[in-house]
Amino acid sequence: MTSKKPRLQQGAAARRRRFWSVCLVAGSVLPAALGLAGCATEVLEQAPTDPSEPWTPAAGTTTHQPGADKSFAVGPEPAVAHIDAAPKIDSSRTYGLPELIDIAQSHNPTTRLAWLQARQAALSQGMVEATFLPMISANVVGGRQRVSSGVEIAPLPELRQPAAIVGDVIPAVSVQWLLFDFGQRRALRDAARHNSIAANVLFNGAHQKIIFDVTRAYFLYGAARSRTRIAAQTVANAREIEAAADARMSSGMGNAVEVAQAKQQVAQARFGLVQAQGEESAAYQALLTAMGISPMTKLKISDASGRALTSNFEAPTEQAIRDALARRPDVLASYRAMQAARAEVKAAQSEFMPKVFLSAVAAKGTSNLTTAGLPTIGQQGSATGFLIGATVPLYDGGLRAAQLRKAEALAESSETTFNRVRSDAVREIIVAADTLRSALASYRAASELVRAADTTRRAAAASYKAGTGSITLVTAADTGLLTASQARADAHAASLVAAANLAFVLGAMDSGATASGLLAR
């Protein structure tokens, strides 16, 4: 009994030491954990304190004083204060439509985005094709362990054995290869290939869209310049009538009312000129926007307002519409998306089939044992092996069935989208042809109206100067000529825009030469 009591006391002392060590660790960890929990809610101080008060990023609190005006201004961020540099422009050169299109294709960010998307789609195809190849990986596992032990025999002191150090290093090379999966990878590769082709087609389509946008903005800018010239000529005509009214007043043939009406006509013409100049500036900025360059760019641009329009127009035939459908980027991209969705259905169906794989490994191990008083003991070994296995899915809670249903729904949706895009393309072609025909007819009618209005205006001005006419007739004739001239300029630009739109919806707006050819036909 006396020999057991010291051993019990020593065991109790050891347990007490372990208990107090655990308490010490818990006492140091718990306050730290509580402090971290407090930090998670302290970040609310960085948010606005009230939904009606401004936020200031400096202190994370509002600085608004009662009775003072609230300022919701945001602090400046110098990193974002950057303006894109204007492209290199020859100030002495006048740029035509082909040159403007070339600048747009080089600087418009839309082309770069489409290019990056096409590259991403191509890389996705390459990633799928990589699954046909084996995966080889190298692994190294190493470790070091120190082992020591002691024996307590009361009342003798503790006896400790010499420490032993064991070190291991195991390098290995493993191979994993999926041999057969019932066509799943092939279906995924087909889907990726169709998506890549669609991205490439849309890349060319982005360039076609830029060519059309620049062409359209170019013609509209030309129309705005024509309206400015017409407004300036109207001011000159009004001043001519004003001078005639002053002359009649000086000779005693006129009166103050005629002079006042003439001055009013001049003021009205000047107002119209200011409006036309503002519209010209807006059209110029719209052209720069279509080109995708800095709005501070200064360009000398050629004028296309003097181009004679054709009087003969033939609507696209049914064969021409079929040819257009076969080359329109949006139709082709939609078709490729439909094919990719059908391939995804095949991939989802393959999930129900087994997969056969090959695994192989080659490893070599080195182990060393070191202990005091003994030489180091080393041991080396190697192992190689391979296996062929098959995995068969049995139950997954309906996951694969849901994935298949989803793929089938996506394929049906893609087919519906393709049919809609194709139908919309046919409708766009027919509408574009009708719009061009109507624009050409409007231009011919407006040209006749301008000739008649100009004759009327000249006759009215001549009769007024001769003293047989009234200033009211001259003013009305001048206004009629202004309206007719602006209508002809608008109809001229509308005809050119309609021709460009027809070429675009036919899928023929594929180069700057095509766009510039609209000026030569």
TrEMBL record:
Any GO molecular function: efflux transmembrane transporter activity
Region (Disordered): 47-71
Name of the protein in question: Protein CyaE
Gene Ontology, cellular component aspect: cell outer membrane
Pfam families reported in the protein's UniProt record: OEP (PF02321)
Family, similarity comment: Belongs to the outer membrane factor (OMF) (TC 1.B.17) family.
Role summary: CyaE is necessary for transport of calmodulin-sensitive adenylate cyclase-hemolysin (cyclolysin).
Main subcellular location: membrane
Localization (cell): Cell outer membrane
Transmembrane segments: none
Keywords: Cell outer membrane, Cytolysis, Hemolysis, Membrane, Transport
GO biological process: killing of cells of another organism
Keyword Acetylation: no
Membrane topology, from the record: Peripheral membrane protein
Lineage: superkingdom: Bacteria
